[in-house]
């Protein structure tokens, strides 16, 4: 996939059940995209076997402390999606972040992540964010770190039982990252 220089004006809205199928297709397609950047997609076989069910998207849309956002272009075509959750301990949790492969490498991801963080700060007064990424996706982890996230040193297990037909690296796990806006504002954290 060639680098795209996209100057796109996005509109953001909270997803409804009517968006579930489009979100499912967008997320599944984005996670399956083959990318020439070393360490971006991680294990190609794992990526090609990734599945997301519409019922799972609908379940997340219905959760009270989770908001599924969709970014659309001027024609209301979905360009990206991201989920944000408000945790009891005033932490915003970011998940299911996907950008349509036609818009990757053009700044859309940065725009969507910044919007999601701002939404959490305005809506829930959240100053700390957490997320995780697969340990095999080294370039993606570095991308988050350039956005101000830092590794916490914690990991969580990868659900190997869902991919029992694949030979996966023994050390495959989710790497936990956090971003604390109060520390960034005080200059205690490098971006």
Automatic annotation (TrEMBL):
GO MF annotation terms: acyltransferase activity, transferring groups other than amino-acyl groups
Protein name: N-acetyltransferase domain-containing protein
Ranges where the N-acetyltransferase domain occurs: 10-173
InterPro entries attached to this UniProt entry: Acyl_CoA_acyltransferase (IPR016181), GNAT_dom (IPR000182), MshD_Acetyltransferase (IPR050276)
Species assigned in the record: Talaromyces atroroseus
Signal peptide stretch: none
